[in-house]
Design a protein that fits this description.
113 residues; mainly beta; four-stranded antiparallel sheet; 4% helix
Length: 113
């Protein structure tokens, strides 16, 4: 593992003292939309062209969190812990309710027009 290479000097104060970068995943075509799920201690993100959501956990490693995922992206957490994401496949903003361990319970469309 290596320290980040700073290409823009404005970033130097942020990167100073940062932990080494670590690759968490290979095989994704286009990864985007990361969000932290603190309840389960995992990082969640989208692999849009492969229509799936992936997660990484320090102990369990990489796993497919949801597949198919309706080309979901743009994840954010709500105050109650629910996960919001933009579903390109459904042309909607979708809310995924999570259990106390951060696992998905149910989905509901929040906005579709």
């Amino acid at each position: 593992m290596s320290l980040p290479q700073v290409l823009d000097p404005r970033w130097a104060t942020v990167a100073d003292g940062a932990a080494p970068l670590q690759r968490l995943c290979t095989g994704a075509v286009w990864s985007e939309g990361p969000v932290w799920i603190g309840e389960s201690g995992e990082l969640l993100w989208s692999d849009i062209p492969n229509d799936r959501m992936l997660s990484w956990h320090a102990v369990h490693g990489l796993r497919v969190w949801r597949e198919p995922a309706a080309f979901a992206n743009g994840h954010a957490r709500e105050a109650d812990g629910s996960l919001l994401h933009c579903s390109h496949g459904q042309r909607a903003v979708v809310r995924t309710r999570l259990d106390a361990q951060g696992q998905p319970l149910s989905d509901e469309v929040v906005v579709d027009r």
